Amino acid sequence: MMVACGTINNIKITAVASDFDFLGSSIEAAEGEAILYAAQYSIENKQPLLICTSGGGMRMQASMISLSQMPRSIIAINELKKNNLPYLVLFTDPTAGGITASYAMVSDISIAEPGALIAFAGKRVIQGTVKEELPPNFQSAEYVQKTGFVDLVIERKDLSAKIGILLSILLKKNSVINSEENETSEDSQSLTKAAS
Fold first, then answer.
1. Each residue's pLDDT expressed in tens, for the chain with a length of 196 residues
2. 150, 125 in Cβ contact below 8 A?
3. Are strands 11-17 and 2-8 parallel, antiparallel or unpaired?
4. CA-to-CA distance for 169 and 118, rounded, in angstroms?
5. Looking at residue 20, what is its pLDDT?
6. How many Å apart are CA 126 and CA 178, to the nearest integer?
């Protein structure tokens, strides 16, 4: 897991990204610490937090050490929210298990890449439990969006621009709108005051 800071649309943010090539991006103590550090850094620097999720969940070889990262990450995100800082999650393929059951599903805005698998348990496990045939696109980003668990499905090439706009709105900064239109009329100023 990598923690970094940078800018999107001239807005400073803290970001976390998983590396699926390392043990399927499963979560253990070090990964949990990375999330805690990222949340703390966001709070100290008053920056939004973006987590790009990937992985099969908690690392079963680590047992309770791994499972304890679920509540720890939620506590860190709650602290971020207490400080009124935006928290965005970007679901990449695949995101499953304890990742989905913890910090991935408590964002202010959930974004997914097209076709990304988003699940807790596998499709065959669910199908065997409910004894029903599930739709072919079950657990795809588009299906999860349709059922209300994801807000937006966005192509990777458009992510930077869309996230920039979302952050501008969430932080009540109209930098995108102001750069496109430089209106200073009394009408627009009175509308801005009314909207605040």
1. 899 999 998 999 999 998 888 887 788 888 999 999 999 999 999 999 999 999 988 887 778 988 899 999 999 999 999 999 999 999 999 998 889 999 999 999 999 999 999 988 878 888 888 888 888 898 999 999 999 999 999 999 999 999 999 999 999 854 444 444 444 444 445 444 444 4
2. no
3. antiparallel
4. 26
5. 87
6. 48
Instruction: Give dist(CA 73, CA 30) in Å, integer.
Output: 12
Q: What is the chain written as a DSSP string?
A: -EEEEEEETTEEEEEEE--TTTGGG-B-HHHHHHHHHHHHHHHHHT--EEEEEEESSB-GGGHHHHHTHHHHHHHHHHHHHHTT--EEEEEEEEE-HHHHTTGGGS-SEEEE-TT-BB-SS-HHHHHHHHTSPPPTTTTBHHHHHHTTS-SEE--GGGHHHHHHHHHHHHTT--HHHHHH-----HHHHHHHHHH-
Strand partners, 55: 95
Token pair listed for 172: 């009540």
CATH number of the domain where residue 105 is located: 3.90.226.10
Could you list the residue range(s) of the whole structural domain that residue 168 is in? 2-195
Which tokens is 118 given?
């988003």
Contact 84, 55 (CB under 8 A): no
Question: How many domains, in total, are found in the chain?
Answer: 1
pLDDT of res. 189: 52
Contact 122, 102 (CB under 8 A): no
